[in-house]
Amino acid sequence: MSRVISQLLNAKEPDFSIAISNLEHKSGNPSVDVSLTSKIQGSVYRKIREIGLDPNDTTDNELYRGLQSMIALHNKFLSDKIGLTEDQSVSKQMSVIIKKIYDLPIPSKSWAIKKSVAKKLLKECPPKKVKSALGYKSLDSMLKREKVENLLTYARICETNTWNKKFIKSYKKLQPSDFENRQIKISVIKNKKLADCYKKYISDKHHNVVVIKEHGVIANLPLPVRNLPGLAITLMPLMLHFINEVRSYSAITKMHQMHPDFSQQLIEITMQDPDNFIRLEGQPIPWKVVQRHYGNKEHLAYPELFEPHIQADDLYWRKAESVLYWIEPALKFWEDLDYVAALYPNSIVPLSLMDNAVSFCNKLEFGSHSTSYFRDSLWNELLLQYLGQSSFEQEIIEQLDGKISETKMVEF
Fold first, then answer.
1. What DSSP designation does 171 have?
2. If exposure means fewest CB atoms within 10 Å of the residue's CB, which of 24, 161, 238, 404 is most exposed?
3. pTM of this prediction?
4. Interval 5-9 mean pLDDT
């Protein structure tokens, strides 16, 4: 049955099947792949019926159209609920959405570099392209008048890759005392002087969001459009996703704060996500999957492993779909569909909220529709299912204990 999951993931064979076979054998053959395949197929069947189609006689195109209609309907419900109106600009609507996200009862703080420290870093490594674009003659004047989180965003998108790497490497001077727990800053950038930088970034990345995890910054760049269909149902889950990403980075950074080489660990984590945090039967497991495994629990499992530096709140993780229906109950339709897709002979139709919202927002036709979000979620879900097997529990604890023990300073 791993064949279905392999096809949905567009996985490389026979590597994928061998990896699953090894995980199955080591965990006592619980048939995780069979169970997950059955769950996906059952969800597809139920959801096709819920949108008023026949599960036994629905084409891929018909299913896609049906899901897009649901997105349109639910976007209207959500927009009405949070107070979006047609006469508001896209920038104004973004601001309304962000305010609503701040009102949600979810943890939204991260362990981030202090703003005063960030200013010193910018002074030592001046973003000259940003200074020129903003029209400042002196660096001190720019640092005094501009918000540091905005300058960090401008630098990320306007300066060269070489400058950005150099800036991150300047973190070698930082210590845990240069960090603080504070609210993640979600903003809408409005400065029009950097329009060319915005345009290039959006063209290259195919989205308008800049995330600077180590500074706890999520910035939305201005879009050159008068209106954007599906903005509420696209931006809200995207912002919740990035909050999870920032907090995941925050947790692993906090975990390393007692490491004798903290600054080097910080640089490595910032430059590249820790995708090989632990291993199960040779299969690398990313930190974000480990965090989800423990972050979905009501109380911190094995507190002796994480405390005192990591608390249950640091590992908190919830799917965007599980949060959004608190605002609009109709959105419960999308719950637990983040890793679900219908497999057809010549196509794949994701049932995930994010893929369908992105397709709707960008007016993507069937065949050009988004599939990346569900694939990432499916792979993570598969790994999570194996992490949850009791036969792996001791091995995971031992690897975590080894990782965390590495971070403890040796006192002489």
1. G
2. 161
3. 0.91
4. 97
